[in-house]
Amino acid sequence: MSDSPYAPRREVYGKKKRKKPENNKTFAQELVSTLLYIIVITGIFVAIRTFLFAPVSVEGDSMNPTLEHEDRLLLNKIASIDRFDIVVFPAPEEPEKQFIKRVIGMPGDDIAYRDQTLYINNESVIEDYVDLTQESEEITEYYNGDFSLSSLQGVETVPEDMLFVLGDNRVNSKDSRSFGFIPLDSVIGETSLRIWPIDRIGIVE
Questions:
Q1: CA atoms within 13 A on the CB side of 134
Q2: Given 19, 57, 77, 101, the catalytic residue
Q3: Under DSSP, is residue 126 helix (H, G, I), strand (E, B) or coil?
């Protein structure tokens, strides 16, 4: 051991620090990297909107009081469709437009309407989503009169792979009573969430 009062240089100063590698990316490389990031994010957004979820706007009063004109909803494009779901589909007579209606009849269902009461497979259904209390008896009877599938379409039950849909505002809705059944595979998606206006955000039933 050395008797020198001075410690070796390497003990005083330690090991020499390595320099961090310099970022030598050029402006062009940075630009390409940023563009790729934007493309990926945009692709993810488009994929979600195209295949999973998308906003949709209500036009008109055919779904009152459940939905109001200009309500904004979140459309679920991968949900399975069931009776009483609210669905979006191309308007049968104007495919460039979209209709929002409620599924009333599934394939195999017998649908009838008598004395302002809905019957599905001969069982009465309480429709809490329908409110015609503000309408006169004459208007209600005229626009929401009795019907059956045989009187409307000449069949006893909803055909395979088809749906029978109605608007909640029965006195002001163009639906399966006029344009008939809609193909199940024409349904774009189901919605049960209102996202606008802010004071009405929430689950829609």
A1: 8
A2: 101
A3: coil
Which tokens go with 189? Answer: 């998606």
Identified catalytic residue from 19, 33, 57, 62: 62
* 38-84 residue pLDDT tens: 776 766 656 555 556 799 999 999 999 999 999 999 999 999 999 99
- Of 3.10.450.350, 3.10.180.10, 1.10.10.1100, 2.10.109.10, which CATH number belongs to 54-203? 2.10.109.10
Closest CA to 99 of 158, 163, 174: 174
pTM of the model as a whole: 0.77
- Known catalytic membership, residue 101: yes
Per-position b or e across 163-173, b if 16+ CB within 10 A of its CB: bbbbbbbbbbb
- 62 is an active site residue: yes
